Amino acid sequence: MSLNSISHVKIAIDGPAGAGKSTVAREVARRLGIKYLDTGAMYRAVTLKLLREQVPLSDREKVEEVLKRTSLDVENGQRVFLDGEDVTAEIRQPHVNAHVSPVSALPEVRRRMVQLQQDIASRAPGIIMEGRDIASKVMPDADFRFYLDASLEERARRRQKEQRERGLHLSLEEVAAEIKERDRIDSGRDDSPLTIVPGAFVIDTTTRTFDQVVEAILNVVRGNRKE
Ligand code: DC
Fold first, then answer.
1. Hey, whose CA ends up nearest to atom 11 of ligand 1?
2. Mutation probe of ligand 1 site: the residue of 23, 39, 43 with most atoms within 8 A of C-beta
3. Whose CA is nearest to atom 8 of ligand 1?
4. Quick one: which atom of ligand 1 is closest to the CA of 41?
5. In the chain, % of residues over pLDDT 90
6. DSSP assignment, residue 91?
7. Which residue from 80, 91, 132 has its CB within 8 A of the most atoms of ligand 1, so it is best to mutate?
8. In the predicted structure, residue 3 carries a pLDDT above the cut 80
9. How far is the CA of 216 from the centre of ligand 1 (A)?
10. What pLDDT, on the 0 to 100 scale, is given for residue 119?
């Protein structure tokens, strides 16, 4: 791709929890000078709102009603404001981890999030978005589609390290069990399950360094590698 078209590139990154999507996507965005959006953070913020309002997920009308009066803003791709309040730290807490997959399986929630994400994408010249349904649903017209994966053990190790840095001390087994359960729900739901779309570049990050993964993506985008 030419330098000019790179500033307008649309890149989709999908994959399960702990595959390294956020850190890698943020760096690729920085290197290419394009916008970055962590869509998981948006599902997390909605989950927090429904938890705070104690909405039973079976009450779909109530869920719709709460969604209608919820405002969600994402700054710099990752800083999340829920009804004006900065909830960036709280959405990474265990109570949100435990409920985010069932919440994001609700079609009402997905419809609203996809609409917001598509609005953000349409306003950005170039963007890299990461989540579970980016290539399949949010940006089916993306110029490049990547699917990042890693072994469950490695993903659990990474999440455990991240959580330790935030002062949360969970055993590797606990983190692995939570990720496995989220994988099961995210991949098994009816509405836009996590999937590898045709034409996606699949990158197994288990034994690759952060720099290697970033370089692999940049090489594809810059046209230095064909798969
Ligand atoms: O990437 P993450 O772990 O922060 O995502 C949290 C949850 O949000 C994940 O378990 C499933 C859901 N999600 C989704 O359904 N679709 C997306 N595009 C992004 C996240």
1. 101
2. 43
3. 40
4. 4
5. 91
6. G
7. 132
8. no
9. 23
10. 96
Q: Using a 6 Å cutoff on CB, does residue 186 contact ligand 1?
A: yes
Query: What is the strand order of the sheet 144-149 is part of?
Result: 35-38, 127-131, 10-14, 144-149, 201-204
Is the pLDDT at 225 greater than 70? The verdict is no
Centroid of ligand 1 to alpha carbon of 4 (angstroms): 31
Helices 94-104, 172-188: axis angle to 10 degrees equals 20
Task: Read off the amino acid at residue 6.
Answer: I
69-85 pLDDT, tens digit per residue, is: 999 999 987 799 999 99
151-156, long-range: CB < 8 A, 24+ apart? 151/206, 152/176, 152/179, 152/180, 152/183, 154/18, 154/205, 154/206, 155/16, 155/17, 155/18, 155/19, 155/179, 156/18
Q: What is the pLDDT of residue 86?
A: 98
> Is the CB of 192 inside a 6 Å radius of any atom of ligand 1?
no
pLDDT at residue number 224: 67
Q: Which H or E element spans position 53?
A: none
Distance CA 37, CA 80 (A): 11
Token pair for residue 87?
């909830």
Give the number of the atom of ligand 1 that is nearest the alpha carbon of residue 100. Answer: 7
pLDDT at 7: 87
